[in-house]
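name: query_chain
kind: protein
chains: 1
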Amino acid sequence: MARIDAFLKLGLAQGCSDLHLAVGVPPMLRMHGDLLPIKFRSLGDTELESYITEVLTQTQVAQLRGGNDLDFSYVSTDGGRFRVNVFRKETGIGAAFRSIPTTMPSIEQLGLPPIVRKLCDQHQGMILVTGSTGAGKSTTLAAMIDYLNSTRALNIISLEDPIEFVHRSKTSQVIQRELGTHLPSFAEGVRAAMREDPDVILVGELRDAETISMAMTAAETGHLVLGTLHTTSATKTIDRMIDALPIDEREQTKSFLSQSLIAVITQILVKTPDQRARRAVCEIMIVTKAIAKLVMTDQTHQIPSQLQMGKDYGMQLMDQALLAAINAKEVDPDDAYGYATDKRQFQRFATDAVAVAKTDPAASA
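structure:
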């Protein structure tokens, strides 16, 4: 049993999402969004490196000592599955272990809007799930893949870094490939997938121009492409896609977005009223003719007004979703206030006067 498994076991027992290890501080657990120290001594460089190298292969040890970061999945002796990032910093080695649930979540269990299920019934085009790191994008995508796997006879190719949820083929065939293990890059993975008779291609992250371009090509040629971006709104997602590609390709990119982008799901995780869990809250953009025209005419700043008025299409702004979740008593009002864009709408719900004063001094005057 690797010594690090004791920390992982403790975190799982308490329902924590992450374990953080760094030199000079005790191990830290993230519980419902908050980082809490374990009652343990501060870790030294040599001690921590010995903990981490116990779970690495010889190849990974060589890569780490060569100055490279590591991304991989790890299964503890108790059967817990984790996504791991190991890195070096000024004071020494560090690592983050993200817990991956052992049971596959459903769209309903995650509390995602009903439109998400309908989006999965599309046959071609691109659906993007966006949000900051730790917002649950991978979990949402896993639920969408599981829905497809359970309801349609498809060839689903998933490109991940690393593989997190393990999908067993049901009605569909699910092929999972890992960056660094089975493929050199996401772009190469998409290129190869297009020769493997896919119906659905999941791209773990659209992280560079080449990957974005290949994913766009796949979506334009009759495949359903699911992907992620680290953007925090539908408008920022559109702008990121356009800005990521060379200037001479921007008109082509706008044409793709207006014709082949199906939807953008932007999500955050907000604490529940009892502070014991977090719930996904989503902004939804469906690319209608009106939104497509805004993209083509460089008026993406007007997209939020379309989302606000697009309830009949299943659209909603993040602020609308947060207000609905507060009224349904599904989220903590103070935490929701922190995520809100137009905070004036949320002041009557917030109970943390200090937080309100920091963001809107006039409200406390």
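note: The chain has a mean pLDDT of 94.
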